[in-house]
Amino acid sequence: MANEKTLSIIKPNATLDNNIGNIISMFEKNDLRIAAAKLTQLSKEKAEGFYIEHKDRPFFGELVEFMTSGPVVLMVLEGENAVAKNREIMGATNPAEAAEGTIRKLYAKSIGENAVHDSDSAQSAEREVSYFFEKNEIVDRF
Ligand code: CMP
What we know:
Elements: E1 3-10, H1 12-16, H2 20-29, E2 33-40, H3 44-50, H4 60-67, E3 72-80, H5 82-90, H6 103-107, E4 116-118, H7 122-132
Antiparallel strand pairs: 1-3, 1-4, 2-3
Bound molecules: adenosine-3',5'-cyclic-monophosphate (CMP).
Adenosine-3',5'-cyclic-monophosphate is lined by residues 54, 59, 62-63, 93, 111-112, 114, 117.
């Protein structure tokens, strides 16, 4: 299995609920390492650009409003099969469909306020990581 990097965002509902540590702990318990991290609040422009592929979806305005409503934690996670592993730990986009013990089952409120974002493929991971992080902000010591 390949060593990969993927982007993870802890969303405003989870940061405001004080679940940053609980969520990071789930990544670490599953052998994903944090290779970069920032706590920040996204501007409207930055959130719109990040979710540009959804710009024609009916929920786009709501999504951008929510993602700019409070602090987020942007992280690069690294590990074997990191993209697929992160998706498994997070659970389905809609928490009503997420498996027991997944981050979204535990910490999401709704399909919109769903606690975490991840990259859905190695290709989107590459775009998403470089959207938020410069190369020199990502450690490669592991
Ligand atoms: P995320 O993994 O961040 O990628 C796109 C986001 O759009 C998704 O998680 C959801 O939070 C959001 N989303 C997807 N479908 C809907 C929907 N029907 N209503 C509101 N938000 C949605």
